[in-house]
Amino acid sequence: MTTIGILYPGHFAEDDFPRMEVLLDAVRLVVNHTAVDEDAYRADALTRTGAPERLAAGVPELQRAGVECVVWASGAGSFLYGWEGAHEQIAALARAAGVSASSTSFGFVHAVRELDVGRVAVATTYPEEIAARFTAFLRAAGIEVTATRTAGLGSAAEAARCGPDRVRELAAAADGPHAEAVLLPDTALHTVSQVTELEELLGKPVLTGNQVTAREGLRLADRRAWSPRLGRIFADREAPPAPVARWGQGRAWARSGGKGRSGKHAEPGGWGV
């Protein structure tokens, strides 16, 4: 059983995590809520949600649960710190937790790289000035953003009330022929039950805040997991060991860190990029 700690700000779309726990085999997603003093999609309020002392306060509960790693489940509460600041944020979280740590924002970067795509469209509930900071974060990681569409909502509570039709409209509005994937970064948005439907609608991979948060935890834990109901990022099983032609040959292949079906080695755990 792989046990992953999730630090989630407030109470909005955290029910996405038990849904993923059911769909993933032998994976436990332990959610602990951090305090939100003001639910507002403004840079100052969102940045306060990711303050080091606030994240550290949520760590003891996760430690008692025996988590193997911790992921800060906030998009804006991480990318608003900027590329370097977001690294410092999760480094401080890792020191407080005593295990490897990351955030939703880095989860998007690693998921895009795993899919081997370079151009993405962004569909976000945030106001334009907040959305622009996310696209800047992606560009700092070398990811091209072809288009950004914003719903211009004012709070996480508003995002949590968005139904499936609104999510579909937002994703479709952002999509275009040059985008190889569509990203929905808000972890307050209920999306896990819609991922495969959105991918069928758009004909390309879709990455959402809570989905990539869970996958980032699995990356840190060095655990491969699959579920066809969680989108293409979870669609492929890990390749089995190579056939053994002679005694010991298969063991040697395994110890060498053989590649999977994608042709790439799994990225090692730890914090940062």
Describe, in plain words, how this protein is organized in 3D.
This protein is α/β, with parallel strands linked by helices and 273 residues long. The protein contains 13 helices and 8 strands. It has a 4-stranded parallel β-sheet, with helices on both faces. Helix 8 links the parallel strand 5 and strand 6. Helix 7 (104-115) crosses helix 12. The longest helix has 16 residues, at 82-97. It is globular. Residues 238-273 have low confidence and may be disordered.
Comma- or semicolon-separated keywords:
single chain, alpha/beta, 4-stranded parallel β-sheet, globular, disordered C terminus
**Helix-strand topology string:** EHEHHHEHHEHEHEHHEHEHH
Q: Indicate the proportion of strand residues.
A: 15-25%
Tally of DSSP β-strands: 8
Cα end-to-end separation:
26 Å
Discrete helix count: 13
What Rg do the Cα atoms give?
Answer: 18 Å
Helix content: 40-55%
Average predicted local confidence, pLDDT: 89
Secondary structure class reads alpha/beta
Shape: globular
Largest sheet: 4 strands, parallel
Summarize the structure.
The protein is of the alpha/beta class and 273 residues long.
SSE topology sketch:
Layout: E1 2-9, H1 16-23, E2 27-34, H2 43-49, H3 52-57, H4 59-64, E3 69-72, H5 76-79, H6 82-97, E4 100-103, H7 104-115, E5 119-124, H8 128-140, E6 144-150, H9 156-160, H10 164-174, E7 181-184, H11 195-202, E8 206-208, H12 209-220, H13 249-255
Parallel strand pairs: 1-2, 1-3, 3-4, 5-6, 5-7, 7-8
Helix pairs in contact: 7-12
